[in-house]
Amino acid sequence: xxxxxxxxxxxxxxxxxxxxxxxxxxxxxxxxxxxxxxxxxxxxxxxxxxxxxxxxxxxxxxxxxxxxxxxxxxxxxxxxxxxxxxxxxxxxxxxxxxxxxxxxxxxxxxxxxxxxxxxxxxxxxxxxxxxxxxxxxxxxxxxxxxxxxxxxxxxxxxxxxxxxxxxxxxxxxxxxxxxxxxxxxxxxxxxxxxxxxxxxxxxxxxxxxxxxxxxxxxxxxxxxxxxxxxxxxxxxxxxxxxxxxxxxxxxxxxxxxxxxxxxxxxxxxxxxxxxxxxxxxx
Length: 282
Known about the structure:
8 strands, Rossmann fold, single chain, Prephen_DH, oxidoreductase, alpha/beta
């Protein structure tokens, strides 16, 4: 089976390692604009380099689109120009499913079947050198099926078996609502918060490296890839803005509690937050 991966960063590189460990007989080819990502996995004999997207895609049985959301959309547009004479499963890892599914609907070749995907795991680190076969272990991997057959879905799951993920089917709109709340909104807030704190620290002449663990723990995700997260935020902006409006109201309430020295309200809010975060641990 020929598997082609477009985008060999943290996610794509991890998927390449996972598939290489599967029991399915595969040949993995890959394309990435960053040659360092390719070189790292080539040296481990995990992938074979293809110098352009079309060349890699046209001979593949499964195509995995693992670049940024905007590049995934470009890839889907390119797939429409390829005359496949065999069935091919196309799947992706983008975190904004509705916009990607809308683009996938434009695929006119009946040989192409599309299965939207999104692993709920990542890191602030980027590049294939940080790829890890255990990156998705015991995390949810959302599937948003457009028209893939059951056999194709089963084959993809077989390729991903070494990852030990928990597959979960979810409609695109529900996925984007959920992900905007638990991933996109937190990232947007932390990017803004870290930028604000950094600028204020400069004005005060404060060295942020002196900060305690709280700031380090809270702002780790601010080190996420700027290009990737710009694409994510713009592609799911309507959902994020809805959540931001709710957050702004809650923040104004909290500000009011502080202005009024409302000890009970502040305590109750912190207690609810503490309980909610504790429950996330299971």
